[in-house]
């Protein structure tokens, strides 16, 4: 293995699991660096206390262990701004993994500045998108930071080699970690994603045991669940009239989605690094939130603004997917999106039933829906039926000219 340029102190994105524990020891042995661990609580549903204990066991000083509860920040400053745009990647994916990476990168850089670290390290593999998202985020915030990506650097060629390294350095290995995992999982408050191994053949249905955030729609209750979601300036603020914090609100929507089998997605996506990959995603609360947000926009947004948002959204989604959250173009699009939401206020009524989210009502003090205009009854002052004739003829003019030419 070639000699590594010296690193004094490195901040490692650390889960406490086997892989990042191996990375921690590898940084100590190969770089001789002082390691600072950073563990982010993004609502992944795991107990994070063991991460601290594991870091202490591996010789990390208590003052160099950072465990940050970022759930409210994650939903308020990342998930909600993304949902204001009704963001989906390639028509389906709600970007649950993608949107978490910039917050992790930002916090990692903040810790690096705080402790005087000259490097940061992540555990993303060399084939995936996350390496791109983390590193673009690092460089956008700290242009000269040193980035260490072990999976692109070390010489381990197999799972067995990694386990042998762990054993030789007294890193505890749970029994269920000795064999190859049936699939890999990433989770946060917005979603869970499962990829690899039993899911690699896209022609085969995913086993039921892959799903962890939702019950099967077939097993969901035979009666629908009716709920209301209130919005202020494009963000959800209450469920069934109860005001909740961003993280608490998404947690409640996740519970409702789970119980009704909502939010499952089996997707083959186009990775930024150039390959196709198959993933099984579960976004129960996000699926409900997207339907509710589009519903409240349907009565509060002007047609031109709504259609322009829909045109901009795929570009916005691509920027998030590819790791450009901190880019000037994403910030420009965000400003336009946020401006569109100033009057997106009101309440949406939804029916949840066996995997489906159905909008059954919407109301707003800022509604653009005018029942007098749309009624079939005569007498609406703002609309004269006779005006439609000229409107239609003018819009058809170019088609009439073309038809005459083609007939000659």
Describe this structure in words.
The chain has 408 residues and is an alpha/beta fold. Helix content is 41%, strand content 19%. It has helices spanning 18-31, 49-57, 71-84, 101-115, 130-141, 150-153, 159-168, 246-259, 284-300, 303-322, 328-340, 371-374, 387-407, and strands at 9-13, 34-41, 65-69, 119-121, 146-148, 184-187, 192-195, 225-232, 235-239, 242-243, 264-270, 276-282, 346-353, 356-363. The strands form three sheets. Strands 3-2-1-4-5 form a five-stranded parallel sheet, with helices on both faces. The chain has a five-stranded antiparallel sheet with strand order 10-9-8-13-14. A four-stranded antiparallel sheet has the order 6-7-12-11, with no helix packed on it. Strand 6 and strand 7 form a beta hairpin. Helix 3 packs across helix 8 (246-259), helix 4 (101-115) crosses helix 5 and helix 10 (303-322) runs antiparallel to helix 11 (328-340). 36% of the residues are buried.
């Amino acid at each position: 293995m070639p000699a590594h340029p010296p690193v004094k102190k490195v901040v490692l994105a650390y889960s406490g699991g086997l892989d990042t524990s191996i990375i921690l020891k590898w940084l100590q042995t190969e770089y001789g660096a002082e390691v600072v661990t950073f563990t982010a609580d993004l609502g992944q549903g795991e107990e994070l206390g063991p991460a601290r204990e594991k870091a202490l066991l591996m010789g990390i000083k208590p003052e160099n262990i950072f465990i940050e509860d970022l759930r409210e920040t994650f939903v308020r400053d990342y998930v909600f701004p993304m949902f204001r745009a009704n963001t989906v990647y390639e028509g389906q994916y709600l970007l649950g993994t993608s949107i978490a990476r910039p917050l992790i990168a930002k916090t990692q850089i903040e810790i690096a500045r705080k402790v005087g670290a000259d490097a940061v390290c992540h555990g993303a593999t060399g084939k995936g998108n996350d390496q791109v998202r983390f590193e673009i985020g690092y460089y956008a915030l700290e242009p000269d930071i040193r980035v260490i990506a072990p999976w692109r650097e070390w010489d381990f060629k197999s799972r067995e080699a990694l386990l042998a390294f762990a054993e030789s350095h007294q890193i505890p290995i749970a029994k269920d970690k000795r064999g190859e995992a049936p699939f890999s999982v990433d989770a946060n408050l917005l979603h869970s994603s499962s990829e690899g191994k039993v899911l690699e053949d896209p022609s085969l249905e995913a086993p039921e045991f892959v799903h962890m955030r939702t019950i099967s729609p077939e097993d969901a209750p035979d009666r629908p669940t009716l709920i209301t979601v209130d919005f202020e300036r494009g963000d959800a603020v209450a469920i069934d009239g109860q005001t909740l914090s961003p993280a608490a609100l998404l947690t409640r929507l996740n519970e409702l989605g789970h119980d009704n089998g909502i939010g499952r997605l089996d997707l083959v996506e186009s990775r930024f690094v150039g390959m196709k990959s198959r993933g099984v995603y579960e976004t129960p609360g996000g699926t409900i939130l997207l339907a509710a947000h589009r519903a409240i926009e349907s009565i509060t947004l002007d047609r031109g603004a709504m259609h322009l948002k829909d045109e901009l959204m795929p570009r916005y989604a691509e920027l998030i997917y590819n790791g450009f959250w901190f880019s000037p173009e994403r910030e420009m699009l965000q400003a336009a999106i946020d401006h569109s939401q100033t009057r997106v206020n009101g309440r949406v009524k939804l029916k949840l039933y066996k995997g489906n989210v159905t909008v059954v009502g919407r109301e707003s003090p800022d509604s653009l829906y005018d029942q007098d205009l749309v009624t079939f009854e005569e007498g609406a002052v703002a609309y004269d039926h006779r005006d439609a004739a000229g409107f239609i003829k003018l819009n058809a003019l170019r088609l009439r000219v073309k038809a005459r030419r083609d007939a000659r």
